[in-house]
Amino acid sequence: MVAFSGAHVVVTGGTGALGNAVVGALRQAGAICHVTNMHAHELDHFAHKNDSGVQVTSGLNLSDEVAVTAFYASLPPLWASVHIAGGFAMSPIAETSGADFEAQLHTNALSCFLCSREAIKAIRAAGKGGRLVNVAARPGIEPRLGAGMVAYAASKAAVATMTQAMAEELASEQIWVNAVAPSILDTPANRAAMPDAPHHLWVALPAIAELIAFLASPDNGATRGAVIPVYAGV
Length: 234
Hints:
The protein is α/β, with parallel strands linked by helices and 234 residues long. The chain has helices at 17-28, 65-73, 98-126, 138-141, 150-170, 188-193, 205-216; strands spanning 8-12, 32-37, 54-58, 78-83, 130-135, 175-182, 227-230. The model has no long low-confidence stretch (mean pLDDT 97).
């Protein structure tokens, strides 16, 4: 099992389905989690809301540069930052407006950029190296699968590219940057949207959460610049 020994870790979007699982894996490994929440209703089902080792900040717009800067500046010395927050939208290209495209870039790419930038500053200040883990998506690294969801695929491709560029830039500082690129996650929302799909082939949340926790941990002593396919059976 990975061990954090009380290290401080940010988890953006940590109250969603994947976030719940990741926070659970991090807490089990001894991390102290600083979680951002944008949708208040998620707190009703957040398994860790009464955990003293989990601090939740609600209403933080992760594409707001001033707000993100202030959030990271308020934290204790930071070891890692895991960027789960994002959004999904699909529509045919002819029906996708400029505003739709921009919204996906803000929700997925800009939020990842801002959180990564400020996390790097906080990790540098702690002076012990650290880890960043981003969440891309299969259409972001296999673009043909982005048919019908061009804006989403482009925004997640940006996440994958930023991950690899930052990993190279930060290598000498022992700040490892990686990403996971899942296919379909086995979440209640996805099951409701696709009730007849082969759910047993989807990516189980505990499995991807365990991978993310390892990539964010001190036990990850060498892996950087990876955008790891997490596809399970689909």
